[in-house]
Amino acid sequence: MSKTDLEELSKEELIQLILTLQVEIEALKLKFEKNKKPPTSSKNSSQPPSRDQKGNIPTSRRRHRHGPPSGHEKHERKFVAQPDHIIELRAKSCGKCHADLNRQAGQLVDVNQITELPKAPAQVIEVRQYDTTCPECGVSQIEEPPAGYEMSRRFGSRLEATVVYYRQEQHMSYVRTQKALLDLHQVEISQGGIDEIMKRAGKWAGGKVEQIQDNIRQSQVIHCDETSNRIDGANAWEWVFCTVKSVLHVIRRNRSAEVIRDIMSDLSAEVWVSDCYGGQLKAPARQRQLCMAHQLRALQHVLDAHPRLTWAHALRKLFQRAIEVHHQRNQMTFEQFERQVTQIERNCDRLLHQDLAPPRRRNYSAVTSNIAPVCLCSCIAPMWSLPTMSLNGLYDTRLYIERLQMDFAHSGVR
User: Where are the domains of the chain?
Assistant: First the structure.
């Protein structure tokens, strides 16, 4: 709108235009504030560390010293009682007068042991199967090969196990697996051969799924998480169920609680360890431990946006203290451990029942509708280990989630 157009407007029209512009300005301010929230990273969200923006390391920063820490007790490799090979170092002639010393006994002055890998070229085993006719009854007899030497087999069991180890445990590509086999074992193998080995291994492992699933169902403590995955160009979800003895990976096309019900059947766990996702909170369990790794990330995201939120600071400090007590458990007496647990429980009660001023909230019905009792464990055990300490008190998930909602409402996190 030009200056001439504005001069032609009446007073009422100008007032109305100004009010409309004020509304637009306020809306733009709100959008600008939302866009000011801190960027996500692996420390405050589920984003993998590989996607973090990494800055240059300052040149003035002290470089990390390699090797053992200062004051570390020296450890030397112990000698074995029965070495595989012994090399005798005896002088055959005198270095000064060239006299023959072969018949001189000599005195042992030093011993050293060297650990070495033997050369491991692959062996080619030829299996010859014969058809023998019995001279008495005339029946043809063909001897069946033992396990591992079947006539249809092209690669031995140890070679196949090595391929699976490279591919699954070390996550090596087909090309790198080929090169490792050639360099270390002088084995030439095509990528198709590697693929056939992996398919056979997968078929064999498939027979163990029911056994692993039964172990999961019978466990008292189960860790569970899910993450997105791509399979043949389509979106899917990879679920993982972990106990102290078993780990089960399941691929499903959905992320609903149906997956958990399918795995658990009609059984339930004593403690279910997970994040606050609604499907996880519907898992069949008597008690729940919220995964503290997820909660610490969520709290960090809030604190990145609003560093002065004291409740979030206090809760994060409490979680970190609980982790510290868990790692120090073996260094404490039972009475010391119980005192630490009691103190952490009291502090948690105080934080969960703290009155907070209700700020502007967003819609979190998807979270608050899945309320369940939670056993706040003082350990953040890795997903493959068993929590060895849990607090005695039961806390209402609603109290904890409501406070996170309040902090999230400040930060603009959905």
Answer: 157-206, 292-411
